[in-house]
Design goal:
Largest interface: A-B, 25 and 25 residues
Order of helices and strands of chain A: EEEEEEEEEEE
Strand content of chain A: over 45%
Structural class of chain A: mainly beta
Helix content of chain A: under 10%
Structural class of chain B: mainly beta
Oligomer: heterodimer
Strand content of chain B: over 45%
Radius of gyration of chain B: 13 Å
Largest sheet of chain A: 7 strands, mixed
Number of strands of chain A: 11
Number of helices of chain B: 0
Shape of chain B: globular
Amino acid sequence: ETGVTQTPRHLVMGMTNKKSLKCEQHLGHNAMYWYKQSAKKPLELMFVYNFKEQTENNSVPSRFSPECPNSSHLFLHLHTLQPEDSALYLCASSPGLTIYFGEGSWLTVV
Amino acid sequence: SQQGEEDPQALSIQEGENATMNCSYKTSINNLQWYRQNSGRGLVHLILIRSNEREKHSGRLRVTLDTSKKSSSLLITASRAADTASYFCATDPFGQAAGNKLTFGGGTRVLVKP
């Protein structure tokens, strides 16, 4: 266990659905991240939050909407996704230099 | 294009052999990190080497960094079947807040055959 918990682990959603991914960390870290990992593509940084404030949006389409209500929780709200958005979504937190990842949420868009 | 690129993309070795993989990057860095990912799981941090360090060891892992060539290598000695995983290098660009723009390469898939 890395201390970063993601739910659900697996999600299948239709293109018109609205769903959310949840991430929780009990490590006391002030930075949290969303990464996307697709087959045959490098890990892509999506969003960075520091002390609950978004500090990085890596040109992510608006159908992905992050929310960070406090330093321990991070959500990724999903709306009208496309099949190419199917991927492993990884949440992570960091105390500064190194990153602690959750186990990921496998998303399939049908 | 991505900051870090690993080479080779895949590696197959026998248990007990050493595994070496390389990472090249493009811009100046604060540090370079190696992570491991078991199939379908999250990434786990292995080792960090700062830009002013040339070599670092952790257990059976040995990392080198050559900033003049913008390259790093990860050596796993006396490999075990449990070392089967994908290994990623990640670079922390110079001038950015530490950890905020950690950029990962495409990874090296390592298969250790018993």
